[in-house]
Amino acid sequence: MSKHQVDPMGRVVFRVRLPLVRSACTSLSVLYGDTKRRNASLKCVCEGLENSVTMLGSAAFHRVSPVITKLQPQVSLANDIACKSLDWLEETFPVLHTPADQVTT
């Protein structure tokens, strides 16, 4: 499977490089950055939320890690199914290989 890579710990790492996904994320990132630059109050709120989400994500990761380790066979099976499903989506919907700006025009 060319889209999957196994890391040293044996987990499958997905590298989504679909033009549609990449261009949509880039557009949203630019819009978000521009919005923060234009409005100082909104920038302050967004940065506060970003910090909160980062802290919550870190705390959740540390609490869930032991459970994930115990459920590794089930997680691996779910990951394999997700990988196959994403492969099917890419083959079935070739529009995923088209940048977002070309899809909307």
UniProtKB/TrEMBL annotation:
- Give GO terms for biological process: lipid storage; positive regulation of triglyceride storage
Q: List the InterPro entries.
A: Perilipin
Protein keywords: Lipid droplet
Q: Which residues form a coiled coil?
A: none
Where is it chiefly localized? other
Database matches in Pfam families: Perilipin (PF03036)
Subcellular localization, as worded in the UniProt entry: Lipid droplet
Q: Which GO terms describe its cellular component?
A: cytosol; lipid droplet
Q: Which family does it belong to?
A: Belongs to the perilipin family.
**The protein, known as:** Uncharacterized protein
Q: Which organism's genome codes for this protein?
A: Hippocampus comes (Tiger tail seahorse)
